[in-house]
Design goal:
The chain has 81 residues and is α+β, with helices and mostly antiparallel strands. It is built from two helices and four strands; from the N terminus they run ββαββα. It has a four-stranded antiparallel sheet with strand order 1-2-4-3, with helices on one face. Strand 1 (6-8) and strand 2 (13-19) form a beta hairpin.
Length: 81
Amino acid sequence: MDQPWTRRPRPDRLERRIEFDDYERTRTFLERLNGLSEQEGRFPDISFGRTYVNLTVRAEADEDPIGETEETFARAIDGLL
């Protein structure tokens, strides 16, 4: 089950878990995410398994709050699905 983006404190960040039916779909999503990250110059923290991806989007500096830039990037990630 996909989870929506969740905002977490200390440090302020956005987190999301995305689940896939099989490894091929997981890999395809990760390849698309790589392209988006290269294009935007933003790189989320990623952990993944065969059928899931966990993402964390942080502000440029850990002490900065999540802002429109991070929320826009999160929405762009959603667009890859």
